[in-house]
Predict the 3D structure of the following.
Amino acid sequence: MFEKLKRLFGVGSEPKIEENQKIEAKPIEKPKKEESQQEVEKVAEKPRLGYFHLSGCTGEIMSLSENYDILAEILTNMVDVVYGQTLVDVWWDDENPMPEMDLALVEGSVCLQDEHSLKELYELRKKAKLVCAFGSCAKNGCFTRFSRGGQQAQPKHESFVPISDLVPVDLALPGCPASPEIIAKSVVALIGGDMDYLQPMIDLSKCSLNCGCDLQTNVVNKALCTGCGTCAMACPTRALTMNQGRPECNKNRCVKCGSCSVHCPRSWFPEERIKQDLGL
């Protein structure tokens, strides 16, 4: 995976200069300066980004747009959005082929009764070098798959599955919704080839910890819980409350988004990264 990301974003490689790009030692005329600038822009071509919205509440794209300073910088200077239904107006059908992409952000789970969504998902996997499960619905189905309490809307008549049930997924950004900061920083890390920062997201694409029960089993029952309350603060449905310094889960409110496990500081411990950030 590391080599795949390095190749994609050109980490550790120098831009190649073709022989026909060499300029003779003579006064540079204006037309040649423009040609030279065009070649520089061609070498520094921005990564191509696609945004796909399947079955969800559009929470992820709204979360990113809440931080407009980050959004504007990414969309204007760092990536080229080549496909999407909201960020750009580019649609795919039989007459308009889907473009090639370096990264596809997929929001929402897949409705098995929606023939167009199924075709779109299979097609984007062919066109995208990297596929990111963008939010908990894409990662594990979240409320579209597990809603059993009083949440709305309830998926009573359709079947929803996470995108990893149908196509390989390279990394995941869980959350209901994911925070603006983690979305923006992850895209920037992908562009810069920061493997240390991305490793937890790569690992999370294979993670099946979805609910408060998993937090109880893997953290509380192993005496790892410090009682910080981060899991309860991260829960979007208030299914988790702190009782005598430990999290307690109301299963009727839990939509199994996995936010509690992801935000728990004891569920993963990147020791080397922490030491680097602290200068130890």
About this structure: The first helix runs from residue 2 to 9. The chain is about 40% helix and 15% strand. The two ends are 28 Å apart (CA to CA).
